[in-house]
Amino acid sequence: MSALLVVASLGVGGAERVVVQLANELASRMPTTLAVVDASGPLHDLVDPTVDLVDLHAGRVRSAAGPLRRLVHARRPDLVLSSQTHVNLLTAGLAPFAPPGVRTIVREAEVRGARSRTDRAIRLAHRSLYRTLDLVLASSPWMAEDLATRHRGRIAVLPNPVDVPMLRAAATGRPSTPRPGRRFVHVGRLIAAKGTRDVLDAFTAGADGQDQLIIVGDGPERAGLEALVAARGLTDRVRLVGLDPHPSHHVADADVLVNGSRTEGMPNVVLEALAIGTPVLATDDLVTLASVADTFPPGALRQVPRSELPAAIAATPRLVRPDAGGLRPSLLPERHAPERVVDRLLALLDHEHGDVRGTDA
User: Which of 157, 191, 294, 304 sits a CA distance of 20 to 30 A from 224?
Assistant: First the structure.
């Protein structure tokens, strides 16, 4: 058996991390190719040498149809698996032209509403193009149910894989920065959908005078956020540290990770924070996260209405980080281990028929 995975880039997004983890684990069991529309990006170093990394040099997803079709016919993999919306539509469109015996699977990484013209067009494409697929993977039970409203084929829940040892190794050995108050951390691209402004507002209203907020990420809202921090006189308590492809040391040094996203598939940053031992405070907008909340240990995840975020920050307890740069125990369930996730994926491939939505790996 062999596998070919497809992703748009090796940027710092959660979907890219998931595909890299799946490719690395699959490569320990079978010949595995990772095809990237544009293989530049900071996650390049996380791809295991056993993975055959192929740069399609297409620049844009819509230009990758020819190179990807030729690659599938040349390699003739048993499995083609993609993630990210536009890449999924591409692989679904190419599925009818694949050689006999190739099974095409897509992993949905985003929640699509029906508010914008783009969202409506993509939901319509799901109803048509996804008919060609052997299986659609969802990262949560909520997403699986949402997909079922427009896709009548097989749908299964596959937890996001997280390489816990790698994350913890990257965060271990960095001495904890002395501080008198609590430390909050927010990680994500600085765009409106990530709710960074809401996190800053909640910190301003709910934090104590000695608390700190570390904002990790970059994007179009950065200049505005920096100006707001300065206008509020918070430059000594709020730091925007910019993009960090491997932010685990920032997360390990925090009392809580605050996630303000308004909509998201399954936020990898939340899972990675739990793996490092840092609890998470998030808004209840993330229905996908709420649908798996009961799989986490008590106290690992708090979800509150957005309007109650300042009060939740005020009520956050201060945690103790072990001496000598050690870490708190992982809070992430074992089912997110890459080997368990791939075990479940391969088991799903053995089921030729039926709709499988359980979350047990």
Answer: 304
